[in-house]
Amino acid sequence: MCYYCSAYWNMFNIEQDSSFDFKQFFSPLTKSKAILIIVILGFFVYFNSLFNGFVWDDNDFIIKNPEVHQLNIVKLLSPNMFNSGPFYRPIPAIYFATLYTLFGKQPFFYHVIQITLHFIDTSLLYIYLSFFFSGGLSLFLAILFLVHPINGESVVYIGSTQSELYFLFGILALIIGHKQNLSRSKVLMVTGLLFLCSMVKETGFLFILLVIAYRFIFKLKKRKEVLISGILIGVILCLYQSVCWGG
Q: Per-residue pLDDT tens for 2-23?
């Protein structure tokens, strides 16, 4: 009898040891675990949006816009619906032209890529925040960014994918540019990312100010080079717009 009791007890202990332990999962909280949490939570929050269709400006800028129905880079960099008036947004034009070439009028794939971009943006934000805060606090702030209603439009409305794109380039520039010293290749990389960021949306210029301010506030090396790069980006964009519009 004691033998069977002992066997049952050992089997019970094995089952307990093999059971999932939430506390053990979160401790230690590694970057891979945090990113997994972000993806799983984000999937549950935004799953329904995958089946939304084209709405509002999507019809004018994508469905009824022949300029994005072919991947003509020269034309997409020239004046068009995305590059008109005070706006110069060639990267979204190229982005939508690429998706239209691949998927046509199937909104599901546009939403999949858009949500994936949001997961990537949130994960990169977590990595950047972890430079300054603990892993738990960084994850909490990243999740707040992930699910906050203020970001809902940029995640579920196809026409607002440009917000996800400019944040992607901007946060990458911040992550690469946070180090004390930057090699020449890293300075060029940061400059390229900030340039792309500004070509997605005008507010991307704020990331240029953030990168420059960060290096000057913390007195990091190569701050003058980064400042010059930011000024050059602004000058190039202004000159290109003036040439395009004949200003």
A: 555 555 555 555 455 555 555 5
Predicted model pTM:
0.85
Yes or no: say if 187 and 226 are a contact pair by the CB < 8 Å rule.
Answer: yes
Mark the ranges of the chain whose per-residue pLDDT is less than 50. 14, 247
Dihedral angle sign, alpha carbons of residues 99, 90, 183, 210 = negative
Expressed in angstroms, the distance from the first to the final Cα of the chain is 96
In the chain, the amino acid numbered 165 is: L
Query: Residue 94 in contact with residue 76, Cβ under 8 Å?
Result: yes
Distance CA 137, CA 141 (A): 6
Counts of helices then strands in the chain (DSSP H, E): 13, 0
Residue that is written with structure tokens 């995958």 in the block: 50
The Cα–Cα gap between 117 and 164 comes to 6
Q: What is the DSSP string of 212-225?
A: HHHHHHTT-TTHHH
Three-state DSSP at 195 gives helix
What pLDDT digit, counting tens, does each position of 209-236 carry? 999 888 888 888 888 888 888 888 888 8
199 Cβ partners below 8 Å, 6+ apart? 88, 89, 90, 91, 237
Tell me whether residue 22 is exposed, middle or buried, using C-beta atoms within 10 angstroms of its C-beta: 0 to 12, 13 to 18, 19 or more: exposed
